[in-house]
């Protein structure tokens, strides 16, 4: 909120400012019932549950928070054919940029913000395409496809390193 107050000229066109909500749970219930294209739960885990999943009208959910959808809610949303970009894919940017910081530190490099953003977009876009391709090929949802890809990559790296027979 402090950012909004300090940067009044940097808001989205037509946005009149934030509305304060006394009860976040009531706000979520209203939010989940809105007819929107994309819903982005971005703060807390377990916000979309079997009790409220049936009210969701979004065509797509991007999990910016860690674990915002419970397993039971996930099944309900799958039956409703809601396309979900899972948390391990949707919010991986912070981990990727932390890796970039490590690379720069170990090699005494300094990348400008534009370069960091370019590299981040390239990696996240490739990851999304890989998960989507796996999802279609294996006929599984995006969450399962992301896990399948992750496990196969760790297994392959372990095999190549020769750690385990």
Automatic annotation (TrEMBL):
Check the record and name the SUPFAM superfamilies matching this protein.
NAD(P)-binding Rossmann-fold domains (SSF51735)
Molecular function GO labels: glutamate dehydrogenase (NAD+) activity
Q: Report any one BP term from Gene Ontology.
A: L-glutamate catabolic process
Q: Which UniProt keywords apply?
A: Oxidoreductase
Q: Does the keyword DNA damage apply?
A: no
Q: Name one Pfam family in it.
A: ELFV_dehydrog
- Where would I find the Glutamate/phenylalanine/leucine/valine/L-tryptophan dehydrogenase C-terminal domain in this sequence? 3-162
* Name the UniProt record assigns to this protein: Glutamate/phenylalanine/leucine/valine/L-tryptophan dehydrogenase C-terminal domain-containing protein
Q: Which organism is it from?
A: marine sediment metagenome
